[in-house]
Specification:
By secondary structure, the chain is mainly alpha-helical. Helices cover about 40% and strands about 10% of the residues. The protein has ten helices and six strands. The chain has a two-stranded antiparallel ribbon. It has a two-stranded antiparallel ribbon with strand order 2-3. The protein is globular and about 55 Å long. The chain binds iron/sulfur cluster. The site of iron/sulfur cluster (SF4) has 12 residues, from loops. Iron/sulfur cluster binds next to loops.
């Protein structure tokens, strides 16, 4: 969103409070240097809803995005030091943060959804992890899951039972994966995206806010 009263960065930190950046190919070195570790990243899977900078609302993304996580349960970027009002990785901040000028957002808008990284750019081809991610995508596609929230569907009752079932199978899948591969829970949102339970809760919040029976089609 454009800020009208300033023409340079006043280090207010508002941009960092609104959420961490999505990563682009220019940021791959930060991952290789472990400045951006899977613990501090999460994946937005194809078919999830994302905020569009030019539209007042959410759009269904047709591509995967890797983003820097929020701190605890907030959207505030995990690298933002609220006390110092400073970025903990300022010299190594991702490209979206480098180009962001809230008083003149055109460069940031140009970058939206362009040249973004996905898990396949980071996780080696042919690895067991890649294989597990493909299995997960087949079993729990985000777009199909969120489509089940279309309450105008005559099959809503069936859908709500199917949603609960998928959420519980998702939890078991993740628990088994962590146990079998010794992966920390903090990395799971990067490898498999957010839990279906979290997507469902976000969707419910979104639907309640809109007091609508369905989310918009795209
Ligand atoms: S990486 Fe740094 S500059 Fe970018 S949103 Fe996070 S705290 Fe702000």
């Amino acid at each position: 969103m454009k800020s009208d009263n300033i023409n340079s960065c006043i280090r207010c930190g508002k941009c960092c409070l609104n959420g961490g950046p999505a990563l682009h190919h220019e940021d791959i070195g930060l991952i290789h240097k472990n400045i951006l570790h899977p613990n501090c990243l999460f994946t937005i899977r194809s078919g999830e809803l994302v905020c569009h900078p030019l539209e007042e609302g959410l759009i269904k993304t047709g591509q995967e995005l890797i983003k820097v996580k929020g701190a605890e349960d907030s959207w505030t970027c995990i690298f933002f030091d609220q006390k110092e009002v400073a970025c903990n990785i300022y010299k190594n901040r991702p490209i979206e943060c480098r180009v962001l000028k809230c008083w003149e957002p055109s460069e940031s808008i140009d970058l939206f959804m362009r040249g973004t990284l996905s898990r396949s750019d980071i996780i080696p081809d042919g690895s067991i992890l890649n294989e597990m991610i493909s299995i997960y995508e087949e079993r729990f596609p985000a777009g199909e899951f969120l489509d089940m929230f279309n309450k105008t569907s005559r099959r809503w009752e069936e859908n709500s039972i199917a949603i609960s079932k998928m959420i519980s199978i998702d939890i078991s899948f993740r628990d088994k994966f962590m146990e079998s591969f010794g992966v920390e829970e903090a990395q799971m949102e990067f490898f498999f995206g957010r839990r279906l339970k979290d997507l469902a809760e976000a969707m419910e919040r979104c639907l309640t806010k809109r007091a609508s029976k369905s989310y918009p089609t795209f």
